Amino acid sequence: MKQPFVAPILLVLVMVLAWKSRPAVEHPTTRALDGRSMGTTWKLAWRGPAAPQLDREVTQVLDHWEQVLSQWRESSDLSRFNQGQPASADLTRVIDLAEQVRIASEGAFDHRILETVHGAGFGPAGKGIDLSAIGKGFAVDRVGEQLRQLGINDFVFELGGEVLTGDGAWPAEIETPSPNENLPGHSVTLRNRALATSGNYRQFVPEGKLLKSHIIDPRTGAPVMRPPAAVSVFAADCATADAWATALFVLGPEFKQLPDGVQVYWQQ
What are the structural domains of the chain? Predict the structure, then answer.
């Protein structure tokens, strides 16, 4: 098991990508696209030649996975599964990964708590599984796969704060968590890495010196209570970073049983 690398603490909740970067030698032009999908926004930047209809390629991938994973579409694969129908092959892929994280995190990440999440005021009514803490990251990985199939290897892609980079070096601007003020952010350079964050200073209810967050501890069914805090997770793929960011916010900085290749920054 690898230990987290040593670097300045990065305070993270919402990722704000800085589309500035050192140009690649072969293709000095940095190009960018953006759009909306899965209830949030996405941004793509890459170095290299123009790619015709790339926005459509990205949108098609995201639309497909939204149809698989959406809690809000009655016709989605996930909604049908929660109503008792068999899981599709695509949905099974995500459920299997979520189950692996549930076991490794000792239950701090648990996708089987849709009813609990709704009872806490988040998510739709119903019973079954909730893949919102891993779904966007999984979709980001699929976009990365599609970009590489199209010959775009030097890229950075962000969906609702979940970030994946390709072969080139890309700086990501990272917001400092503070409930009451905008503090200077921090920057980190990513290459072939994913980055995801969980925190409590955007959606919370104050409870004395603590914040009652929107993140539920599956082991108790109660919202996590912490001072203003954020944990950012770096991993080889965005689904892993996404799920472990949620798990670690529940577990706290004391938890050290991290998977190989996962690196963590905490502040609270």
Answer: 15-267 (3.10.520.10)
Helical axes 135-149 vs 89-104, angle rounded to 10°: 120
Residue 167's beta-bridge partner residues? Answer: none
**233 strand-pairing partners:** 196, 264
Q: Which residues contact 82 (CB under 8 A, 6 or more apart)?
A: 114, 126, 127, 128, 129
What are the backbone angles phi and psi of residue 140, rounded to the nearest 5°? -60, -45
Question: What does 188-230 look like in DSSP terms, one character per residue?
Answer: EEESS-EEEEEESSSSEEEETTEEEEEEEETTTTEEEEESS-E
* Strand-pair partners of 231: 198, 266
pTM of the prediction? 0.87
- Non-local (6+) Cβ contacts of 92 within 8 A are none
Distance (Å, rounded) from C-alpha 67 to C-alpha 242?
19
The counts of H helices and E strands in the chain are 6, 13
DSSP annotation of 29: -
3-state secondary structure 41-94: EEEEEEECCCCCCHHHHHHHHHHHHHHHHCCCCCCCHHHHHHCCCCCCHHHHHH
Question: Tell me: the pLDDT tens digits for 163-207?
Answer: 999 999 999 877 776 567 676 667 899 999 999 998 876 666 667
Q: Are 43 and 140 in contact (CB under 8 A)?
A: no
